[in-house]
Amino acid sequence: MASTTVPQHSLRAILAVFASLAVAAAVLLLVGGVTLPAMALTAALAAPFALYAALKRPLDFPFGLYVLLVPFDNLLHTGGFGTLTKLLGIVAGGFLLLWIARRRRTAGVGAPVLFLAALGVWMLASTLWAIDQQAALEIMPTYAGLMLLYAALAMMPISLDGFRRLLLLVVGGGLCAAAYGVHAFRTDPTFAQESQVMMRLVVQVGQDRIDPNHFADALLFPIAIITMWALRTPRLVAKLACIAGLALLVVAILLSGSREGLTATLLIAAYYFWRSRYRLQLVVAAAGVVAVAAGVQTSVFLRFASAVQTGGSGRTSIWAVALEAAKHRILQGYGIGNFTQTFDVFYLRVHQPYPYGWNGPAHNLILHYLVELGIVGLVLMAGFFYAQFRSLRDIGPSSEFYDYRLMMEAGLLAIVTVSMTIDLFTYKYAWLVFAMVALLRNAYEAERSKAAMRPTSSSMIPVLSARSRIEALPRSPSARRAS
C-alpha cells in the first residue's frame, strides 16, 4: 500500500504559501480595517492551506498567527465579539486539543496549570459575593479563555525547532509594531515636531488605540529574545542585525514615554549581565543601543523626574484606597472584576494628595487581586508565578537550553516588574510569555527523554542482533551444528 505521508519539502512549501497569505491578510486588515469584505476575502484565500496547517501543525498555525498579531491586539476589534486575536486564540485552543486527542500525546500537567485551575475556580466562586455580579460574570469568559489556551499549550509537545519558530514570530510581531509606531510618531501631523519632547506615542487606527504603557510592555518579550540572539550568535552580520532590531524596539519604548517599559528593559539587561556568560558582548551591544537612543526626543525622562511630584500619575492615591478597601474583606475580596466598583465605595474615605478621580484602575497586580480575590486568590496567583520560575530549574548551564531558560526568566521578570504599575493579567502579551515558558519546559523534557532513550537503544542492538541470528538457525540440532 502506498504511503500517504506528505513529503517534508511539500509541507514546507504549503506552510510558506500560507505564511505569505497570512502576512498579506494581516497587512490588508491593518490598512483597510477589519471589515466584513476584507475578512471574507482573507478567509477564502487562506482556508484550504489554513485547515491543513491547523490539523498538522497547530503550533505553527493558527497559534503562530495569534503570536504574530498579539502586539496589535487592541487595533483588531471585530465588533461585539471582541478582537481578531481573541478569535484566533479560541480556534488555536480547539486545534491544539484536537491534535492532542488524535495523537494521544501530551506533555503532562505541571504545577503552574494546577495553580491556575485553582485560581480559576476561586475567581468563579468570587462571583457569588461580588459587589457587582454582572461585572464579575462578564469578565469571567476573558479569564477562562486565557487560562484554557494556556493549559492547552502547557500540555502540547513541541520540539526545539518548533519553539524557535515561535520565538521568530514573537520578534517579528514586535518589530512590526515598533516600526509602525516609530513611523506614525515621525509622520503623523498630530505629533508636532516642536513638541515631541512632551508627546507620548499612542498607536491608533480609527477609533481603536493602544495605551502607550501596554504598547511598550508588549515589546519587552521581543527585547529579551533579540538581545539573547545578539549575544549568542557567532556571526557578525546576524549580531549587527539583532542589535539594529533591539535599537528599534528600545526607540519605540522611549517614544511611548513608558517609565515601566524602560525600567523593565534595563532589568532584562541587568539579569543577562548577572546570569549569562556574555557580559562583555552585552556591554558592547548596550553601548550601541544607548548611542542610538541618545538622539531620541522623548518625554520619558521628564516623566521620571515628575514621578514623585505626581504620585506616579496618581497611582499612590489609588493604592491607598485599595489598601483601605482590602482591610475590610482581606480573606475573600470583593469579587473578580470589581476593583473599580470597590474603589468608588472607598474613594472618599482616604485622603487624596494626588487625586486620580472616580473609577480608578488598580495599576498594581498585587493590590488589584488582593481587593478582588483576597488573600486566598493572591496566594494562588503567587503560586502560579512561582511555579513558572521553578518549572525551568532543571535546565543547567551545561544544557543547550540554558540560554533559552535565561531568556524566558528575563521575560517573566520584566512582566512581573511592569505589573507593579499597570493592570496586565488580562492582556495577551503577558499570557504569551507564560505559554512560552511552558513550551520551553516541554521542549526540554522531550529532548531529555530522547537523550535517555539513545543509550538504551544502542545497548539493545547486540542483543537483538544475536536473537535474530539464533532464530535464523535451522531447528534440527545436527543441521544447526553444521550451520
Description:
With 483 residues, the chain is mainly alpha-helical. It has one domain (8-311, 355-450). Helices cover 70% and strands 1% of the residues. It has 19 helices and 2 strands. It has a two-stranded antiparallel ribbon with strand order 1-2. Helix 5 (111-126) runs antiparallel to helix 6 and helix 10 crosses helix 12. The longest helix is centred in the C-terminal third of the chain and has 45 residues, at 428-472. It is globular, with a radius of gyration of 26 Å. It starts with 7 loop residues before the first helix and ends with a helix. 40% of the residues are buried.
What's a concise summary of this model?
The chain is mostly helical and 483 residues long. The protein has helices at residues 8-32, 36-56, 63-69, 84-103, 111-126, 133-154, 160-187, 212-217, 220-232, 236-256, 259-275, 279-293, 300-305, 311-328, 339-346, 365-390, 402-418, 428-472, 477-482; strands at 203-205, 208-210. A hairpin with a 2-residue loop joins strand 1 (203-205) and strand 2 (208-210).
Could you name the ranges where pLDDT drops below 50 across 5 or more consecutive residues? Answer: none
- How many strands? 2
Name the structural class: mainly alpha
Shape: globular
Radius of gyration: 26 Å
Q: How are the strands ordered across the major sheet?
A: 1-2
Between the first and last Cα atoms, what is the distance in angstroms?
Answer: 37 Å
Order of helices and strands: HHHHHHHEEHHHHHHHHHHHH
Proportion of beta-strand residues: under 5%
Number of domains: 1
Number of helices: 19
In which range does the helix fraction lie?
55-70%
Average of per-residue pLDDT values: 86
